[in-house]
C-alpha cells in the first residue's frame, strides 16, 4: 500500500532484513538407489579440488537421495539432488544470453556429477536424466524475489524482541499475510505453516475451536 500501514516487524525486515541467498539445484535421475544415504536427510562433503562454478569457488558439495520414496522413480532408480549457493547478479546478467546461460547450467551439472562420483564411484555412469534449476528458474515459476527459495535470516535480537513476523496489518481488518515470508526461514513447509496459522487466527477471531484432521483418519 502506501507504507502507512506496516507493523514494526515488517518495516524492520523490509528496511534492513538479511535474506538467505539464492540457489542452484541440480537434480539427477539415476539408475541406482543410494542406500548409503537412507539414514540421513543428506550429506555435505569437502572437495579435494575446489570447483569454479557460476563465477565462484565451490569447496564443498551437498547431496541428497530420495530413494526413500519409491513413487519418485521406477524400481532400481532414484532421484538425487545437490543444492549450491548462487549469486543472483551473476545469473541475472546471463538472462539475455541464452547460449551462455545454457552452457553455465551444463558446466554446473557436470561439476556436481563429477564431485558426487568421486564420493560414490559409478554415479556418473548411472545418470539417465539431469535437470538444473537456477535462480531465474525459481523466479519464473514462483515469482519470488531474486529467485530465493527461502526468506529472512532473523537475527537473535529480532527473535528475542518480536518472536515472529506478524500476519496482520495495523488498521486493516480482515487482511492476513499468509506466505513463506511470514514464517522464516520459509520454504514450502513455511508456506504450509503460514496457512495453518492464519486459519487459527480466523478461528480465534470468530470464537471457533481450531480442529485438525488427518487424511484417511
Report on the structure:
This protein is an alpha+beta fold and 217 residues long. The chain has two domains: 8-16 and 151-206, no CATH class; 22-147, no CATH class. The chain contains seven helices and seven strands, in the order αββββαααβααββα. The strands form two sheets. The chain has a five-stranded antiparallel β-sheet. It is globular. It starts with 7 loop residues before the first helix and ends in an 11-residue tail after the last helix.
| Major sheet | 5 strands, antiparallel
Overall residue-averaged pLDDT value: 90
Adjacency order of strands in the biggest sheet: 2-3-4-1-5
What is the number of E strands?
Answer: 7
Strand composition percent:
15-25%
Task: Please state the overall shape, judged from the principal axes of the Cα atoms.
Answer: globular
Which series of helices and strands comes N to C? HEEEEHHHEHHEEH
Global structural class: alpha+beta
Low-confidence stretches are none
Q: How large is the radius of gyration? A: 21 Å
Q: Provide the helix percentage.
A: 25-40%
How far apart the termini lie comes to 43 Å
Overall tally of structural domains: 2
| Number of alpha- plus pi-helical segments | 7
Which structural traits does this protein have?
7 strands; single chain; two-stranded antiparallel sheet; 217 residues; alpha+beta
Concise synopsis of the structure shown:
With 217 residues, the chain is of the alpha+beta class. The chain is built from seven helices and seven strands.
Task: Furnish the topology, listing elements before pairings.
Blueprint: H1 8-16, E1 22-30, E2 43-53, E3 56-65, E4 78-86, H2 88-93, H3 98-119, H4 123-126, E5 127-133, H5 135-142, H6 156-162, E6 168-169, E7 172-176, H7 187-206
Antiparallel strand pairs: 1-4, 1-5, 2-3, 3-4, 6-7
